[in-house]
Amino acid sequence: MDFTEIDRGDFRNLLIEIGQSWMPFGKFGPKDYPPRGVPIMDLPPEYLSWFKERGFPKGRLGELLESVCDLKEVGMDLVFEPMRKVNGGRVSVRKYKPRTDF
Q: Which Pfam families match (predicted)?
């Protein structure tokens, strides 16, 4: 998507839709991150790049993932901060290992 040609209202609606979308499958889906998975705006850039190389899913989810990927590639990740703030902050996708050195 070329963001230089998008209307301000359309861009706002796109951001709202991205803010309300969660990853429904895969390693960032509900199975590993209950109850809904990871918000697509918090997916790691490496994961989005993997989809870019192999193809985004079909349908609206694929379009939204592609938009998030494009925004992150051009350094516009901060555009998601107001939505993260409303939702309680960024969802961590880092797996924590339990300490065993007690």
A: QSregVF_b (PF12843)
